[in-house]
């Protein structure tokens, strides 16, 4: 057998591919190679080097070219990726592709880690002095006279500099160079004196530097978790070590970046999907080379190389944004823990509302719990009140008690947040004459009325249609919006409180970049205002004059069939409530519901999140549900229901007989039709993760070979978070 390279290629197939080594160069595990694939070429990552070819590997092709003389992915990253591909049952090639920024998946030289800049040459300086150039050329020379500028800087200063740069470059008046390493910010903001709980948390984690130990930092919003992160990153920096800080959303990034930069006085790398590809690749490479010490990023930043790893932090660890929901379905929090073990560093998970998964790990003694129980800034935790909506006369879905509370708050010159997790004007458009309602033909779900756009929109598939003038079923004119979305609440509140500014914050009003921050910047701190919005409002800016949080329309969450709905609702209520009374003024939270006696609400409001979570965890344990049991979900969709049924029953029949796993289904998905495709699923459960994987791993390979698999789209989801 010849010795070959085993290569991961970015294709959704459950295999690695064998190639003969390149003619020139020594390809090692972690190096990228260009290989012939199909009718074209592909860039892959060498997973194993110098291994005997599989029996039967005939007609082996040769690697066309070695792209990295030394491995781009180090041994730890390769090991963690192999673990991830195996655990989440992903195609190995897709796992490796996820780990690399897009630019590094191409057959191109690695980009300079320093941002390229334009600078004046000696000739350029004389040309400027002699005033021999005019117009845009002169403007560019002038802009560069104070020092080199990057393309991004120039874009801000000059409208059309690129043509001028080309002309001046050809004339030798300016040249491209590499910037000096990003300079340290000069003014470093002093850290506050940590209070005892913060200091204890910092000491606990710092004493675990150099070994793997997970911690759960459990502290309400505003209790000072970020200060704990900052102190620890500083300690890691002092030892020359790198830190990875994961956040669930880009929206959280700008504020946090600013805070980190001001405090730490070192460049902070940022990694998220809104960045230009060049930026992402450079940030990744600067961490790989050790030039950069701190990276802040969203989910996929968990794949950043950390050759000098010191610490991994996962903020808001309960957030479902950490789970990738398509392609390679990994969970960034869980992968952060795997990397922490491989790198031998502590992993700090932080949250005001920890996931039941992490709480179970604390109970089992695997994670060490750290608590921040007090708020350094505000003396009073918000006071929470349930308003029973039953048999109340509602105005636009708002109860008299709630309207009174809003009125009192704005009369005192303070601010109100009305939380409603539904965009649009109304979730349903109903014919009052015959009962017809507008429905998405591709999903068979009600369409949401968006009044400002004059459109009906499907929130499941984005299908849009004009609002009918008359009922398509009976021709009646009496079409009535049912229920309230944020758009309708904004309208209603503006009419009810005409003297107070009403601001809506949801995905529509914040579509533009930075719109969220700009909207909030318009708020006058000492004036009354009413904010209406979705869960985007649960996070972000500190609003010191916000003293009332009104939570409306959460009853759907209480009644949902998804067993995780209660956990999510509890987290959301606590996160939103945490926005009230963050400064010296006491805060108040009003939650209106038709189910005032619901056990979850009672627990939550009487005893807080920890008690509610404990009760939920006990329920899960009793029912054998995650995290106390383990699940793998096979999802499948096709245009024809018959194709879905055929595949799922073949898949089900292919499962081995085993007492260790239970099978639920085949059954229709909770949304049996979506975007015109029929959907079904098969759930495999076990009390033991090991048993579950032992059954599912060979089965997953078998599935690809089922004849019925060709007529459907299917995916396996390990630890699914939505069923
Ligand atoms: P969290 O991340 O838990 O929401 P932060 O770390 O952002 O909390 O702290 C909330 C506010 O309290 C911030 O304005 C922060 O500067 C301030 N703060 C935190 N810890 C202290 C401290 N020990 N002394 C003074 N102010 C603090
Ligand atoms: Zn009708
Ligand atoms: Zn739809």
TrEMBL record:
Pfam families: DEAD, Helicase_C, PriA_3primeBD, PriA_C, Zn_ribbon_PriA. Keywords: ATP-binding, DNA replication, DNA-binding, Helicase, Hydrolase, Isomerase, Metal-binding, Nucleotide-binding, Primosome, Zinc. Residues 206-372 form the Helicase ATP-binding domain. Its cofactor is Zn(2+). Its EC number is 5.6.2.4. It catalyses: Couples ATP hydrolysis with the unwinding of duplex DNA by translocating in the 3'-5' direction; ATP + H2O = ADP + phosphate + H(+). This is Replication restart protein PriA. It comes from Dyella jejuensis. The gene is priA.
């Amino acid at each position: 057998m010849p010795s070959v390279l085993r290569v991961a290629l970015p294709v959704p197939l459950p295999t690695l591919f064998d190639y003969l080594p390149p003619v020139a160069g020594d390809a090692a595990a972690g190096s990228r190679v260009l290989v012939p694939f199909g009718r074209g070429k592909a860039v892959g990552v060498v997973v194993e080097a110098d291994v005997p070819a599989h029996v039967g590997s005939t007609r082996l092709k040769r690697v066309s070219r070695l792209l990295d003389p030394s491995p781009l992915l180090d041994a730890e990253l390769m090991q963690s990726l192999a673990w991830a591909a195996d655990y989440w049952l992903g195609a190995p090639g897709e796992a490796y592709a996820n780990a690399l920024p897009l630019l590094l998946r191409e057959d191109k030289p690695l980009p300079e880690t320093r941002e390229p800049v334009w600078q004046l040459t000696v000739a350029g300086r004389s040309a400027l002095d002699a005033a021999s150039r005019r117009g845009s050329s002169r403007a560019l020379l002038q802009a560069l006279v104070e020092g080199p500028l990057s393309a991004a800087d120039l874009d801000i200063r000059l409208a059309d500099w690129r043509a001028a740069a080309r002309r001046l470059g050809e004339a030798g008046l300016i040249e491209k160079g590499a910037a000096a390493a990003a300079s340290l910010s000069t003014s470093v903001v002093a850290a506050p004196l940590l209070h005892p709980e913060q200091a204890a948390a910092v000491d606990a984690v710092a004493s675990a530097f150099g070994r793997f130990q997970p911690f759960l930092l459990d502290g309400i919003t505003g209790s000072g978790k970020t200060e704990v992160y900052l102190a620890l990153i500083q300690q890691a920096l002092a030892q020359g070590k790198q830190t990875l800080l994961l956040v669930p959303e880009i929206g959280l990034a700008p504020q946090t970046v600013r805070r980190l930069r001001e405090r730490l006085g070192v460049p902070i790398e940022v990694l998220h999907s809104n960045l230009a590809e060049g930026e992402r690749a450079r940030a990744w490479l600067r961490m790989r080379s050790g030039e950069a010490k701190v990276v802040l990023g969203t989910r996929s930043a968990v794949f950043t190389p950390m050759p000098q790893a010191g610490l991994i932090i996962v903020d808001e660890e309960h957030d479902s944004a950490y789970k990738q929901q398509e392609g390679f379905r990994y969970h960034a929090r869980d992968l952060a823990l795997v990397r922490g073990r491989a790198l031998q560093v502590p992993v700090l998970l932080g949250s005001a509302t920890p996931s039941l998964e992490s709480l179970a790990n604390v109970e089992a003694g695997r994670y060490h719990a750290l608590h921040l129980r007090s708020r350094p800034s505000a003396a009073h935790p918000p006071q929470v009140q349930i308003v029973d909506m039953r048999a109340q006369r509602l105005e636009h879905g708002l109860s008299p008690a709630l309207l009174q509370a809003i009125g009192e708050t704005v009369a005192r010159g303070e601010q109100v947040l009305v939380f409603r997790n539904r965009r649009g004007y109304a979730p349903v458009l109903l014919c009052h004459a015959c009962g017809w309602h507008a429905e998405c033909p591709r999903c068979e779900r009600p369409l949401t009325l968006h009044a400002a756009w004059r459109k009906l929109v499907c929130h499941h598939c984005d299908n849009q249609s004009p609002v009918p003038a008359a009922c398509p079923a009976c021709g009646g004119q009496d079409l009535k919006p049912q229920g309230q979305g944020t758009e309708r609440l904004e309208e209603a509140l503006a009419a009810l409180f005409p003297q107070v500014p009403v601001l809506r914050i949801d995905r529509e009003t914040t579509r533009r970049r930075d719109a969220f921050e700009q909207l909030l910047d318009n708020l006058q701190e000492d004036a009354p205002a009413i904010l209406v919005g979705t869960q985007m409002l649960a996070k972000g800016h500190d609003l010191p004059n916000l003293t009332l949080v009104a939570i409306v329309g959460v009853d759907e969450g209480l009644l949902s069939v998804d067993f995780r709905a209660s956990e999510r609702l509890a987290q959301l209520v606590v996160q939103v409530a945490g926005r009230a009374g963050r400064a010296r003024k006491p805060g108040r939270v009003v939650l209106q519901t038709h189910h005032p006696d619901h056990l979850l609400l009672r627990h939550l409001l009487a005893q807080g999140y920890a008690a509610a979570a404990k009760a939920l965890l006990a329920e899960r344990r009793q029912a054998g549900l995650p995290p106390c049991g383990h699940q793998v979900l096979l999802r499948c969709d096709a245009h024809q229901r018959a194709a879905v049924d055929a595949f799922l029953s073949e898949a089900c029949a292919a499962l081995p007989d085993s007492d260790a796993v239970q099978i639920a289904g085949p059954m229709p998905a909770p949304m049996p039709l979506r975007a015109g495709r029929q959907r079904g699923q098969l759930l495999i459960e076990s009390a033991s993760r090991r048993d579950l994987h032992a059954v599912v791993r060979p089965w997953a390979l078998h599935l690809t070979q089922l004849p019925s698999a060709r007529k459907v789209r299917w995916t396996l989801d390990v630890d699914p978070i939505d069923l």
